[in-house]
């Protein structure tokens, strides 16, 4: 990681906060220049994202994307309800209004929150799946308006098809192409009606998202065990969409939950700055999580979510803020020994850059692992079929099956891993930090890190298309190279980079989708010095491959 900012871990000076009125003005007045690639509609792994300040996320973009979704639904024969949710970013509210105008005008059966409040991403996935269960026609789909943990000036717009998970590239590629064509044609084919009329349209209805989701939680977690243990639980929603869910959860299941910060403010002025000085609601960052970490001794377990509640951050009295990889490993070891209702032994799903501690605990338990490229979409089919019991990403995103072995969500759910930390503590008498420490005595204690290295757009393109035989050398940090990968072993899909492994370490290098850098993920099961050798040699190996390319 680059040098840590002097502002990291501190509340932002008011002068550094996002100017929300100016941001919203840019959203409604700025027009993208379609000759600039960065200003065109572009779907990444989590939808179209950007800021109005750069003319990347504007009303023009959302009008076109919403109309493209309407056209796609007609093309794909999707005619059930479309569940629309938003998080607490300022641009989410603006994009919500724009989208409602378009969907109402197109006659889409649109379902929005009954109070016009906030809806976590996993609740949208849960609503889609529960509505579609047992149906043969009239399938529902959904949209989460969120840039996840990104800074206050960002917006995001993500489509989830009837399988409830993130849309695959065949879907998003069609929407992207269609939306850009609509913009280039001056939005002439976009249908919209004024917001006041749209909100009263017969095809727009309000719905209680909260109650069905909260009532169903007992089917995925042992909440009675948490209540019986009398655990003191601390929650920081980080000003996000999860906030209105914690009081109903506490009331229904009689849990001792304290929400330590109930503030919702689109500037996120209550956040402490991340490592680079930006206000980023990253619940896996020790700088962003500094306030909750400071309260760790007040609670038996504490946790946080990002603004759309699809990520989790776990704080324990013994370990403080847990590294996401450590928590995923401890969760797997616990779940696969405490879910007798799971059919057979469903595999574990992990991304190519997640810790090898997952593989080691899987081997210990006799479980198989499906390793896939970065992106939750790769887990969708396995979760629906019940072939994957637990899936997780190194960036603190996860989901797992109901106690019966049936699908819960096919998108990341930050709420259930958070509550699982309380279940683990209640059942075992040890917090997840202690459980992970116990595991490391058997599987080893890895050291994991990510660094960024400069790369030109041309070099990034080369890295994305490398083949395994272009990776030189026979050793990495003194150990023989066991494998060179450019395709994920779990499904054979290219992951847009390279991964090199040895017996006690590995690195993976992938180009950034938004910056002129490539990311090096590395892990050592030996020591810090070994990790640094892996990182240094990784840069040399990748540089040589880029030079040859």
Task: Provide an overview of this structure.
This protein is an alpha/beta fold and 549 residues long. Helix 2 (59-76) crosses helix 5 and helix 11 runs parallel beside helix 12 (357-365). It has helices spanning 20-29, 59-76, 90-105, 121-132, 169-184, 195-199, 210-216, 223-229, 243-253, 290-293, 324-335, 357-365, 380-385, 415-428, 432-443, 457-464, 528-548; strands spanning 43-44, 47-51, 82-86, 110-113, 141-145, 154-160, 204-207, 232-236, 256-259, 301-305, 312-316, 320-321, 347-351, 369-372, 388-393, 397-400, 447-454, 475-476, 479-480, 483-487, 494-501, 505-511, 517-524. The protein is built from 17 helices and 23 strands. The chain has a 7-stranded mixed β-sheet, with helices on both faces.
């Amino acid at each position: 990681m680059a040098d840590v900012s002097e502002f990291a871990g501190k509340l932002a000076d008011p002068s550094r906060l996002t100017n929300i009125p100016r941001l919203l003005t840019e959203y409604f007045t700025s027009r993208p220049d379609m000759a600039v690639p960065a200003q065109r509609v572009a779907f990444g792994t989590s939808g179209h994202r950007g800021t109005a300040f750069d003319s990347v996320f504007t009303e023009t973009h959302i009008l076109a994307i919403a109309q493209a979704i309407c056209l796609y639904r007609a093309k794909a024969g999707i005619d059930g309800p479309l569940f629309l949710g938003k998080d607490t970013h300022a641009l989410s509210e603006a994009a919500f209004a724009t989208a409602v105008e378009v969907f109402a005008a197109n006659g889409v059966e649109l379902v929005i929150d009954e109070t016009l409040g906030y809806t976590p991403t996993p609740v949208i996935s849960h609503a889609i799946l529960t509505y579609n269960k047992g149906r043969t026609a009239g399938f529902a789909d959904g949209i989460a308006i969120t840039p996840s943990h990104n800074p206050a000036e960002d917006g995001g717009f993500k489509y989830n098809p009837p399988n409830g998970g993130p849309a695959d590239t065949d879907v998003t590629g069609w929407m992207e192409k269609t939306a850009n064509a609509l913009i280039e044609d001056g939005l002439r084919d976009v249908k919209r009606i004024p917001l006041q009329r749209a909100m009263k349209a017969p095809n727009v209805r309000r719905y209680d998202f909260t109650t069905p989701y909260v009532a169903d939680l007992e089917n995925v977690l042992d909440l009675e065990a948490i209540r019986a243990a009398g655990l003191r639980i601390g929650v920081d929603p980080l000003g996000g969409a999860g906030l209105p869910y914690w009081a109903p959860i506490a009331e229904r299941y009689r849990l001792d939950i304290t929400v330590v910060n109930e503030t919702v403010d689109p500037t996120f002025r209550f956040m402490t700055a991340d490592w680079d000085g930006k206000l980023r609601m990253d619940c896996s960052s020790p700088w962003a999580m500094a306030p909750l970490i400071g309260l760790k001794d007040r609670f038996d377990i504490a946790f946080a979510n990002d603004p759309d509640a699809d990520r989790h951050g776990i704080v324990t009295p013994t370990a403080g803020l847990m590294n996401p990889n450590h928590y995923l490993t401890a969760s797997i070891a616990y779940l696969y020994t405490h879910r007798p209702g799971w059919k057979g032994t469903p595999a574990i799903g992990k991304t190519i850059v997640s810790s090898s501690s997952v593989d080691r605990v899987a081997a210990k338990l006799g479980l198989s692992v499906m390793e896939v490229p970065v992106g939750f979409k790769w887990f969708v089919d396995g979760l629906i079929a019940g072939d994957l019991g637990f899936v997780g990403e190194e960036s603190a995103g996860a989901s797992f099956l109901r106690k019966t072995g049936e699908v819960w969500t096919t998108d990341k759910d930050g709420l259930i891993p958070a509550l699982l930390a309380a279940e683990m503590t209640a059942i075992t008498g040890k917090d997840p930090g202690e459980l992970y420490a116990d595991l490391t005595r058997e599987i080893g204690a890895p050291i994991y890190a990510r660094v960024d290295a400069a790369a030109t757009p041309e070099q990034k393109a080369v890295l994305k298309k490398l083949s395994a035989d272009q990776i030189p050398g026979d050793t990495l940090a003194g150990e023989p190279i066991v494998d060179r990968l450019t395709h994920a072993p779990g499904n054979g899909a290219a992951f847009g980079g390279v991964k090199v492994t040895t017996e006690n370490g590995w690195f993976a290098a992938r180009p950034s989708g938004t910056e002129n850098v490539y990311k090096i993920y590395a892990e050592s099961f030996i020591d810090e010095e070994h990790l640094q050798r892996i990182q240094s040699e990784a840069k040399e190996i990748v540089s040589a491959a880029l030079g040859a390319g």
